[in-house]
Amino acid sequence: MIKKWSYFLGLSLFIAVVSSGFKTNDAKQFGRIEGFHLAEDEITNYTVPTVDETAKINYNFPFTGKSYIGFKQAIAIKESQGLYKLVNPFGYMGKYQFGKSALRAVGIRDTKKFLNSPQLQERAFKALLSKNKWELRKEIKGYEGKVINGVKITESGLLAAAHLGGAGSVKKYLRSNGTQGFKDGFGTSLRSYMKKFGGYDTSNIIANPNPKVKLD
């Protein structure tokens, strides 16, 4: 109880100190931005919640867990921090960091349009997963559940690794029992992706040998 009152008292004092720091000559010095200042005859009022009101608030944040949504968001954060327009030093583009060859594999040649369309990027990611699932269909069936280099092999882990280094690199890694591994330009390994992104539900991805993205 004391901690909550201390918080609101501190918040009120902070607002008072910050407000006192704004002088009228600041607006003249930097120029007023229309809609972001008060006229001389305007008064602003604010309130803070009481202790009882705060106690009744229920925070309900979405939890994606090991779902497909959780999988693709985890990949996006690792690849680009979720930034659709990011292009890395090696030329990989977008939220999921596609190379030009991967884009061509799913029917996309206009990289400018790709970078400026979040919808196109999401479709491309799902299409590439479909293609990689087809390419790795035998490996998924034959290796899922086994442990290689201390990592349990799962479908989502294999699909993530294929997104990093291609399905061919994943096949080579599995068949060599983990002795022949791939690393990207930043030193990220297939093994690390298999471990980090293992155990997600990617059952909704339909294996397709030649998926093409709808370009609108």
Estimated structural class: mainly alpha
Q: Could you tell me the mean pLDDT?
A: 82
What is the topology, as strand order, of the major beta sheet?
Answer: 1-2
Can you give the helix content as a percent range?
40-55%
Overall shape: it is globular
Low-confidence stretches: 22-39, 42-48, 53-61
Largest sheet descriptor = 2 strands, antiparallel
* Count of discrete alpha- or pi-helical segments spanning 4 or more residues: 11
Number of beta-strand segments: 2
Could you spell the SSE succession in H and E letters? HHHHHHHHEEHHH
What percentage of the residues does DSSP assign to strands (E)? under 5%
What does this structure look like?
The protein is an all-alpha fold. It has helices spanning 2-20, 24-30, 51-55, 68-80, 100-105, 111-115, 118-135, 137-143, 155-165, 167-175, 190-196, and strands at residues 147-148, 151-152. Strands 1-2 form a two-stranded antiparallel ribbon. The protein is globular and about 45 Å long.
